[in-house]
Amino acid sequence: MNSSLTEWLIAHYGREEMKRDTGLSRMREALKDLLPELNQKKILTIAGTNGKGETTLWLSRSLAHRSHCTWMSPHIERITERFRDENGEISEEELKSLVEEAHQKVQENKYSLSFYEFLFHVFCLWARKKNPELLLLEVGLGGRLDAVNVFDADLLLVPSIARDHQEFLGNRYDLILREKLALLRKKTQLMTYFSSVYLQEKTSEIVKAIGAEWIDLEKEWAGRFFEFSFRNQLLARAAFLFLEGKPHSELKKFIPTREFLEHRGEVSRERGEWIFYGSHNVDGMRKLIQFLQSGNYNFGRPPYDAVLVAFSRREPRDLRAMLKMLKASGLGEVIVTGFPHQKAADPVMMKELSGLEGIKFVDDPQDLIGNNEKVRTLVTGSYYFMGHVKSLLRGR
Questions:
Q1: What's the pTM?
Q2: In this structure, are 60 and 207 located in the same domain?
Q3: pLDDT in tens, 191-209
């Protein structure tokens, strides 16, 4: 159903594409009957460049004892990934029914919505029906113009700021930060975990101008956690204490876990050993490599037999920078490939960039799957690529 639903959505709402300044007026109009009720809920919004998906998942897990609806974007393998509650993902049957109902409303009122906006409309319809205590909203892109900004967040989490989607968000950290913090309201409690002093200073300026409250976890926990996953867990825990009405001082008891989430350290042992770590931009790739090297600091040989990588569309200079990092990482033989997805980087360009760096390129990752039972492979790059490799391993 997921594949057929995707085809139906594309036919009626176009492909999911990033667009310049479309504003929030269309979204507000489409949700005018839902917003007054839903804005009465306790609302938590998660923004940022890297780590927002993982932070959202950790928090949603910790709130399994409370009714909540979680919006995540994008989805990797299944559209149902975007819709979660205290019991997990929405069922395909329920989602299909909601899509039909929402589409009828859109048609009757002649709303003009994009793929992303329509699915967020479906989410809001679902949330009203479920009537949860909490709404957890992961921003898709930026913040200022993202559909989730029609809501007034009680709590805003921002795990990181880095350069990504610069054609939409700007190429300076202060510009990117302002796009994310446009989600702030005076009533909003902000929590961040920025290692950059510059970002901390700029955040302080914005918070003071708005009159919001701010908890700077880097200031509280400076130097305590290097691994980015632990930092995301800590931020999720701080949010949990806030939502539970418990004193922030209890955060001192925090102990991170090495449990891995989907696409974030997940291991598959189908036809070999495959370790999945998504990393889709230069800053994220740098931190991932540092994390993997720190966990294998005393290895006498590369920890992986192969590092299989493919990227979504990025500036050629960013793609080449990430290839350079992987080649120099010592993690294993780097193999670059392509994959069938509308957001995938051009395979011709990737082959050319790989050649410039002296890195092996294969046209189809399927060629590497099969007689691979004794090979340990790190799969990284685009999260969409993670989903593609998993489908190949399952023989689909």
A1: 0.85
A2: yes
A3: 999 888 999 999 999 999 9
